[in-house]
Specification:
The longest helix has 40 residues. α6 runs antiparallel to α10 and α6 packs across α11. The relative contact order is 0.12. The protein has 25 helices and 12 strands. The chain is extended, with a radius of gyration of 37 Å. Helix content is 60%, strand content 9%. Strands 2, 3, 4, 9, 10 and 11 form a 6-stranded antiparallel β-sheet that branches. By secondary structure, the protein is an alpha+beta fold. Among the domains are: 84 residues, Alpha-Beta Plaits, CATH 3.30.70; 292 residues, no CATH class. A hairpin with a 3-residue loop joins β9 and β10.
Length: 656
Amino acid sequence: MAVENLIMMDVVGKIKYVDKFAKDIFLFNDIQIVDAMHEIDSGRFILPIREENMGELLGFAQLMSGETMMDEKNFVKTVNKLNELYKGSLSLDMVTLAKGDTDLGRALSKAKEFENNLVLEYGEIKEINDRLEALEKSRTAYSYLDELEANMSELDSLENFSFSMGSVTKDNAARLKSIYNSVTSIVFHVGNQEDNEEVFMIMSPKDLEIESNRILKALNFKPIEGFNPEYTETPKAILEKINHEIDMQKEMKSKLLVDLNAHLKENRKEATESFNTLSLYGNLSIIKKYMAFSEENFYFSGWISKRDKQQMEAVAAKYPDLIIMFSDTNSGSGKPPTKLKNNWLFRPFETLVKMYGVPSFNELDPTPFLSITYMFCFGFMFGDVGQGIILALAGLILGMKGVELGKVLLRLGMCSTFFGFMYGSIFGFEELIHPLWLRPFHEINTVLLAAVLIGIVMLFIAYIYSIINKLKKKDIKEGVFGKNGICGFALYASILGILGLNFGVFPYPEILVPGLTILAVLLVFLVLIREPLANYITKRKPLYKETASEYYVESGFELFEMLLGMLSNTLSFIRIGAFALTHVGLFMAFQTLAILVQNGVISFGILIFANIFIIALEGLIVGIQALRLQFYELFSKYYSGDGIEFKPVDLEINLN
């Protein structure tokens, strides 16, 4: 449950082994590839200066980037075409690829042969589809005139008039109807389209055609497509002819599809083999784009987990004269990406953490803390056995369908169910089971006080996270003397102690209050002078980045903001208790309404609606509020979220 320790791996090998090495990298998968040329140019790719490395060192002077040498587009095009033929059902078989060598030439030949055999059948099907599309347009167009007795040839051959058909929106149709008397055409309303546009037939004298077109253009008149001069009969006869041809075309298409599916099924094995091989070589080409090349050697860089070091050394041992080097984050290897490592319970909550930002490689992963506190707060605010089970089932279904937030919802539902037993609530009813703790509406003060105490505990842990994160970065100024450092934490605890003593929570106030007050004043002073004090301890000069007066004015305002923030952060957690009460009160309102109705069926319907409303709307609001507490009250204290997400090979390379 932490940010995994990553190291940079730099490799130099002979070009003749580049394809096999790239395949090993692809099959290993759990590596983020880095542009080797960039690493070399930045001086981070450093070879030991030894006699046996002279060839590789001299190769630095004639390097070329793989970006200019590799092109995977042809592989990708063929792979996508194969997958399209099988409607996306082909998938990369990593187990088969790992078993042995693959024959690129044979795969290309088979793919080409496969494509040539199918091109005729697909061409005929495409022609039929195009013809069916045209026929459907014609059927729609002539259907508006199906009651017309005249032949279409008579309309097409009018000497003094021209006709057109088109659609306008309902608003423009109303405008057209309002100016019938001033339109220089004969206007017929002939039907409506599915998108609620109205269809009109316009008969215009040819001498006034320009004026008619001007009016129609102003109304955004859209001509109906599908009329064909080849059809000369009456619209009714034309429609019969079109329907007959559509039936014939569909029958031909059905026969072709049967033959095509049989062909696809017969050749599926070879198509799958070609798909795997070409996908592999497409991926290898993309991997090699990140490499650098000299006449004899390839140069490769990538981030791997420190625990995978021995496995990569075993891969390197297969290749003669291959040089493999590892460097950690403290040796100038650049800022590493962040790879999170969480168990099954916390892993889904990484999505919420990444909404704020990816953890930096040198700070604690907030996922476990967020997971526990987010589930706890949600359950506290939305405690109900029945509604919790509904949420859990919804989350389970969404999770099985691949929705990551569904897995979060499953866990939230389970916590809601747990607190439902604590409150004795099932679908809002509090008479069915006895509470294991209390009924929120019966002990309002206890619920609100518990919410504040929960907030204090969470803030304490946030301070500890902040101190560890800042000290890991060797930031003495903020880690020790900062508002979220050791002094800030001690000041917050002192203020809480003083309040607790004054309200009788702790004994001996007359002895402890003066001491805590003096300590609080001292801590305020240390926070105020944290920059010069930290610079003095670490022997940095100058003591102030700006003038002393500017520093103390700015630091004074920050100090006031800090003290105000301590109060507001703590009181903000009252919302946990408030929403727990709202959850109960909202159902009570619906329950009262159901009783007043005095009708069994309607009352039952109201209670069903109440649960649906509460689960959907209040569940969403509670989820947002719990997340707000995480982001604004806790993350703002200890989490920067300025890291770079670790992207392994399979996420970076996507052919499909």
